[in-house]
Specification:
Layout: E1 10-11, E2 21-22, E3 25-27, H1 46-59, E4 64-69, E5 74-75, E6 89-90, H2 94-106, E7 110-116, H3 120-129, E8 136-140, H4 148-157, E9 160-164, H5 183-192, H6 196-206, E10 210-214, H7 218-225, H8 234-241, H9 251-254, H10 267-270
Parallel strand pairs: 3-10, 4-7, 7-8, 8-9, 9-10
Antiparallel strand pairs: 1-2, 5-6
Domain NADP-dependent oxidoreductase: 35-242
GO molecular function: oxidoreductase activity
Protein name: NADP-dependent oxidoreductase domain-containing protein
């Protein structure tokens, strides 16, 4: 019987001792995820390691291959209720939190450490104090939000980029899926004999980015793996490069309740809008 196992390329991460990262992530988590990374309350140095302890028990693992700060956001002490109150947001301690992440790495609790939803300005602040550079920056990235500036910056700094919402993600605005509804991608998919999702994922892969795809369907999982034995033509890449850009995920609308005001934290430091 022929094997149905697809050969998935791997990406070497910068952190010493880290396992290579698959070139496509077959994510099955649900949103919001707060147990496996300290995005919710990393306002003090001890909290990154503290966030890992219950995560380790839940995962039944002694270490994780990759541990991420989920967002450059900190909250006041106390129980977290999602969506969180705006007035509970406090300034993010880039240096202190990253020192704690480095300690997790040093202790072997995390083979690689990284960030998520960090812009170039966020990374500038972090790198100014970092001894261990982040191995990965996981951000919203797809053909309709291509993150050109951030990709170039991360390539220069040796930070691998991983893409969440590679197929457009959750429809927060109620106005359709800009990726799967794209006429440009549909035209390319028809010409190539592929699905729109495969074209989007192939484009991300050709940018040197790892797409993190969420699916529970065996057929879709198989479809998502079928992106490594073909390539996009130069004209395809040109057309995709001209797609109007549209960001979906924003801190103000995704993480926080509509009520209240930001009192002690600057929304500009939390926001992740950057082309």
């Amino acid at each position: 019987m022929a094997s149905t196992t697809a050969a998935v390329p791997e990406v070497a991460l910068r952190s010493g001792g880290a396992r290579p990262m698959p070139a496509i992530g077959m994510g099955t988590a649900t949103f919001p995820v707060v147990r496996s990374g300290p995005w919710a309350r990393p306002s003090r140095r001890r909290c990154a390691a503290g966030s890992w302890r219950p995560g380790r028990r839940n995962l039944q693992m002694e270490y994780v291959d990759l541990y991420l700060i989920h967002w450059p956001i900190s909250l006041k002490p106390g129980p977290t209720v999602f969506p969180v109150k705006r007035e509970d947001a406090v300034p993010f301690d880039f240096e202190g939190v990253w020192r704690a992440m480095e300690e997790c790495h040093r202790l072997g609790l995390a083979k690689a450490i990284g960030v998520s939803n960090f812009t170039t300005s966020h990374l500038d602040k972090l790198l100014a104090a970092a001894t261990v550079h982040p191995a990965v920056n996981q951000v919203e990235l797809n053909p309709v939000w291509q993150q050109r500036k951030l990709r170039g910056y991360c390539a220069e700094k040796g930070i691998h980029v991983a893409a969440y919402s590679p197929l457009g993600g959750q429809n927060w605005n109620g106005d359709g899926n800009a990726v799967l509804d794209s006429e440009v991608l549909a035209e390319i998919a028809k010409a190539r004999g592929k699905t729109i999702a495969q074209v989007a994922l192939r484009w991300i892969y050709e940018q040197g980015v790892t797409p993190i795809v969420k699916s529970f369907s065996k057929e879709r999982l198989k479809e998502n793996l079928g992106i490594f034995d073909w390539w996009l033509a130069d004209d395809d890449l040109r057309k995709i490069g001209q797609i109007p850009q549209k960001k979906i995920v924003r801190a103000e609308t995704v993480l926080f309740s509509a009520e209240g005001e930001f009192t002690s934290a600057d929304l500009a430091d939390m926001e992740i809008v950057e082309e």
